[in-house]
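Support reply, case 0932

Customer input (verbatim):
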Amino acid sequence: MFLLSLSFLLCIVNAVFADVDHCLWQGKRKAPGESWALGCKVHRCGDDGKVNTVINDGCENDNGLCLDLDTHWMDRKECAFFKCTMEESIYVIKQSKGCKVDGECYEQDDLVMPNACSVLKCDLNGILEVKKLGCDTSEGCKKNKEIWGKIEGESCVTEKCVARLVKGKRFISKIESLARSKHCKEKNADVCHRRGTNWHEYDSEEDKCHGIKCGRLGRRQIKRMKG
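Our regenerated output:
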């Protein structure tokens, strides 16, 4: 009985001393001198069976990667921007909210041009700030709320630029055709005149020059002129 107990104790002692030359890490045995990295931390198995940890310079992101100081990266899905910085000798990750326009993500202070004549600025907290709003047309850039006449067949069609921001985040730009025309077409040229405008036309059949005025309802009013 005594010999059995002594043998059992010797087995335990041998097992303990056998493990002194190894490190246990998350249930796995590591050999002395073996090193492995997780994020910005480097672990090493010492000769005494203890794990020593060294923290490298940098920021550890959610994917377990160690990033250098001043490294930038972004999350396109959330339209968020990140930067590895240092505050009071501690590495920290700073996050800023971007602006999403037409599926594209823009960083703070970026100028956003959803069309050729609209300029927006990405402000704090992902809010767009209006610098200039307009509609890009075949006739050039039209300002927001601007009204103009467009030749369509033998008449003028009045259109209006409508450009706006929805809650400072979503840009909308469209051209509306007004139900009642505010323009009159010049007879001998593809020119539209705004209501209340006066101009002169030459009538080749009568060999006379007429004074024309675009009336209140967008209709031509003819006034005969001498000469």
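We compared this against your earlier run and they match. Two observations from our side: Residues 30-97 form one domain. The radius of gyration is 39 Å. Please reopen the case if you see a mismatch on your end.
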